[in-house]
Amino acid sequence: MPPASLVINATRMGKDLPGSPITDGGLFPIGGIAWELNYRGELRFLHQALAQREARQVRVEDGWTQVIAEVLKVRIDEAMLQRLAAVAGALCQPALPPSQ
Fold first, then answer.
1. Which of 57, 60, 67, 94 has its CA 20 to 30 A from that of 78?
2. What is the pTM (predicted TM-score) of this model?
3. Is 62 left (phi over 0), alpha (psi -120 to 50) or beta?
4. Domain count of the fold of the chain
C-alpha cells in the first residue's frame, strides 16, 4: 500500500493571516492526511479538511498538539486532550466543533 498523501498548512494562513492556502472548492486527496500546524485564529484549512473527513476519508491532524508533546516530552492522549480542551474552553471559544 502506498503512503498516504499529506497536505500541511504551515503558511500562517488562518492564524496570522485570514483564509486558507486552498479554496473551499479544493479537494483533499482521498485517504490522505490534512495536517494543520496553526494553533489559533480562524483555522480555515482545518475546517475545510474536517468538512471532507468522511466523504474523502481524510485523516485530520491538529499538528500543534503533536509539537507540544514532542517539545515537552509528554504523551497527549484522549484524556489529556479533553482536560486541555476544558481549560481552553473556559478561556475562549473553541475552534473546532465538539466531537461526535
1. 57
2. 0.69
3. beta
4. 1
